[in-house]
Amino acid sequence: MLPALLPGCLAAPPPPPPLVTTSSTASPSAHLRTLRLPSGLAVSRRAGFGEAARAAATERGAIEEEEEEEEGFPEWGNGDEDEYDHDPEIGDIMGEYFDDPNKAQSRMEERIKKKRHKIVQAKTGSPNPMKVVFNKFDFSNSYIWFEFYHALLPKDVTLICDALRSWHIVGRLGGCNSMNMQLSQLPLDCQRPTYDALEGANTTPTSFYNIGDLEIQDNIARVWVDIGIHEPLLLDILLNALTTINSDHVGIKQVQFGGSEFQNWSEDLKTEEAGYSVHKI
């Protein structure tokens, strides 16, 4: 009875129309739609555009990376990771940073605490200013005497010898010439300093003729010098360096220029058992 009351409503729907293909060997890729980006990058898509948008974003990222390289920004992953070979622990910490920044920060702080003595070194010198005395100092033939607060350690001896050696080299090359101080005589607010090469070449040259070995007896040391000419700038440079050594590295109680005797120095003590040593400058 229902078919009579509802004619056509209960009839079976017609079958769907057959698919039309351009070729009898059509592949699944025939349903794909091809989008061509402005740069010529072809992206095969189905009905949606999400994948095309991602491809466009990827291309934009590549362009931005090229621009960063042109501007001089560092490129990640271009061999920089090789630097971690020098310190594998740093490489391990940096590898965890993107996954767990808090953990990486904690590990870095713990590492700094453990190695603080290597990173930040406390001053080992003296808080007291170094006393400077002149005793008939002759620029061409005199001793320079040093009195330290304690007997020198091997590293302290190395530091003093290096300082004296550097001082001698600069002086021997004529670097301590008070007659040619063009830049230091310019006004403090000078923005574009100039240097007269002709004036510098015509200045009377200076030199540092000779220097002896560093001799040490307990906490007393001396070095013989033959500067050759009267050049106080050489002494100023040495005293500036010794001032820093005294405050930061090795406590120097007193420096004396000139004199054949100093404190309890004995010319008869020439053995290692008596605390005597000689170090080449």
UniProtKB/TrEMBL annotation:
Residues 1-11 have a biased composition (Low complexity). Residues 1-27, 58-92 are annotated as: Disordered. It comes from the Eukaryota. Residues 64-86 have a biased composition (Acidic residues). It comes from Oryza sativa subsp. japonica. This is Os01g0558800 protein. The lineage of its organism: Eukaryota, Viridiplantae, Streptophyta, Embryophyta, Tracheophyta.
